[in-house]
Every structure is written in structure tokens, then in C-alpha cells.
Amino acid sequence: MSAETRTDGDESTLSASLDGLSRVGVAAAIGLLAVSALAVSEELWKLLIVGWVAFVAMAGAALLGNRAARTRDAFGLVWGYGLAAGAMVTSAAVFLLPQAFGLGGQIGGFGVAAGLLAGYASHTASHRLSHLDGINSAAVELTAHSLAAGLIIGVIYAALPDPGLLLGLSIVSHKGPAGYAAARRLRHDGQRISLLLLPAAGVALAAIPVAAIQPPLSANVSAAVFGFAAGIFLHLAMDFLPECELGGEVGQVAELDDMDGEAHHFLDRLRVHAVGSTALGALAVFGAWLVIA
User: Which member of 69, 111, 237, 253 has the greatest number of CB atoms within 10 A?
Assistant: First the structure.
């Protein structure tokens, strides 16, 4: 077999992997339709809107990220990561941490610590899974984060008398840039982009059933839940902070092999964009908070 034939075969295999639909993703989409019917029957209109906004934002941005992954656009990757990181850090600090500490004080703090450590442990678990079953770590972590976010949103809308719609929308404001960045990771690893249908639907899959059941949670349990979700948010946000270093993912996309003067200058430009993108992501959530307030 010639080298050209082997190359064509490898490209065909990769194309089939990328274009095929993930069974997990399809199941998640079907689950989204099921919980949407539940939301309609229970008249959970705000949660229905929040869940579908999260789904459309992440799935749509994932399609854009899939296309962009075909090019070596380091600036696009930095902005995708930075917007997601800035929005997640601010959402956790504004909407989750105050609730965790206000409800349970130190109990909320233990929840935050548990969420951060669970996020760290998920790196090891997802890395092992990627070796065994070809599961991408970004998809695993985003799924865990989406389910945690859905849980907390469900608790909020079940416990508070009349939470505004923008509260939930602010919490899921990072879905678009996170989907864009994750799609580029999946594409780079040769995974199906449709895997992201699960984290895209995760908010609705967790939030709507929780709000429909309306579980009677004590203040301490609610504080632990809020804290855990905040910890997951913060861990994932740190993971998405753009690292503009030689040998890192951004450096690989930019095709930088050695730290000559030109590469150093280019990375410095990327770092400026990294700071700007995280600040803009934070400002977007701040703007939503001003509307809520």
C-alpha cells in the first residue's frame, strides 16, 4: 500500500468519525425533547427558555468551532476560551458563591472545595477514559458542569418565589464560547462534534426535573449544592483560561515550534487578546446583572 493510499484512508476514517452522530448526543437530544414536554405540562416556561437557549448557544457555536478548527486561527481559539472563562468566573462569583455562603457559611465553603476537587479529579478520570474508550476529556468535563449548572438552576427556580428569566440566562451565558472552544478540541482529537449535544442539553436535563419535583432542601443542603456548582464552574473556568505558551494548545494551533523573536512577539499579542477576551466575557455577565438588578 502506498503512502498516498494510507493517507487517503486515514482522512476518510477521520471524516467518518467527525461527520457521524454520537449515540450519546442523539440520546441527549431526545432527552431534551422529553423534559421540554415535562416543562410545558408543569408550566415551567422560564426553565424551558433557559434550557433551550443553552442548547442552541452551545450546539450552534460548536458548529462554528468545527469549521474554524480546519484553519490555524489561534486568535479565534483564544477568544473562544477567554470569553467562556471570563463569563464562568463572573457567573460563579456573582450568582453562586453569595448564595452558598449566605445559606450555610462554612457548609457552602466545603461545597466549593468539593466542586473544585471534583473538577480536578475529573481530569484524571476523563484522561483514563479517553485511553480506554476514546472519550474526550473536554466533553466529559463540560457534561459534568452542565448537569451541575442545571441542578442549581432547578433548585433556584423551585425555591425562590419568582426568579427573573435573566438570572438563568446569565448563568448559561458562557455556553456559546465554551461550545466553540470544545468543538475545536474535539476536532483536534478526531472525536465526533455531536458529543457536545450532551453538555448542550445538560442544563435542561437536570433543571426541569428538579424544578418539577421541587425537593424540600434544608439551608445547609442548598448551600452545599450551590457551593459545589460554584466549585465546578470555577475549575472549568480555570481550565478554559487561554494559555499562550510554546508547546500549549494555542501554540500548536499557531504552529510555533521554537521560541524565536517572532514567535515571542506573536505570543505576546495573543496574551493581550487573552486578557481582553476574559474581560469581555466578565463584562457581558456584569451587563446582564445590571439588567437583573
Answer: 111
